[in-house]
Amino acid sequence: MDFNAQEHATKIIDFIRDYYQKNNLGGVVLGISGGKDSGVVAGLFAKAIGPENVIGVTLPCHSKSQDATDAVLVAEKFGFKLINLDLTSVYDQFEEEAKKIDDFVVSEDSEINLKPRLRMSSVYYLAQMYTKKTGKVYLVAGTGNKCEIYVGYFTKGGDGVSDINVLGDLTVEEVIKVGEVIGVPEQVLYKAPSDGLSGKTDEDRLGFTYADVAKVINGEPVDENVKAVIERKHAANQHKFNIPIYKK
Predict the structure, then answer these.
(1) How far apart, in whole angstroms, are the C-alpha atoms of residue 121 and residue 192?
(2) At what angle do helices 172-182 and 36-49 cross, to 10 degrees?
(3) Are 170 and 146 a contacting pair, CB within 8 Å?
(4) pLDDT tens digits, 67-111
(5) For 83, phi and psi rounded to 5 degrees?
């Protein structure tokens, strides 16, 4: 399937500008993880609404120092403000309080998912703060791509929450191509995708590659066993998209 990265980069920038103009919006806040998705999103917004209206946030929480270094590369490349809000002590305090519950048990998933939930609370806090400070409405930008969304590889109430998502219909390969066009630093763009939380790459945790997910999405040939695993993951995570509401 042909993908014209330059054309889509231009269309995404126009999409952002149009949405902001129609809704009288002013700026955007997003977490900068040091990975390609947040790097591409930050670059697109800087080009669409101006770097002076983009606030990038590093949100370390028992994180690798390299992630913060790579985040600085992105901010310097596109010229937006980068602030740091360290959540390590907040996370640790939460864990200590949770351990006081009588029937507390250690859950790796609870610990991993707490981090993106704290981070999302933080970027929304900052978006409202900058709205108050500037008198212009700041939104929170999401950074999830089509492959991640298809298999539900995001945290409900965490990185799955945003006000606007410009990568949601782009596969990982397409995100990289757009990043090449707009000039995301190579060190960031070609880094192995990782949640920065578990110490593993995304593909290690999932048990399949994003390239295979893209093939399933596009109806291209893929190993039947791999396809079955991907489709099971897709089906199992539908609860993240559809909140059941009782209707009287």
Answers:
(1) 26
(2) 50
(3) yes
(4) 999 999 999 999 999 999 999 999 999 999 999 999 999 999 999
(5) -115, 160
Residue where the block lists tokens 């704290």: 118
Residue 84 in 3-state DSSP? Answer: strand
Give 171: exposed, middle or buried? Use CB within 10 Å, 0-12, 13-18, 19+.
Answer: buried
Nearest residue to 42 (alpha-carbon basis) of 142, 117, 123: 142
Instruction: Name residue 119's amino acid.
Output: R
**Number of folded domains in the chain?**
1
Task: Please check whether residue 247 lies inside any domain of the structure.
Answer: no
- Spatial neighbors of 98 by CB under 8 A, at least 6 apart, are 104
Task: Give me the amino acid identity at 239.
Answer: H
Residue 150 falls inside a structural domain: yes
For residue 30, give the H/E element and its range.
Answer: strand 27-31
Domain residues for the domain of 44 are 5-240
d(CA 153, CA 238): 11
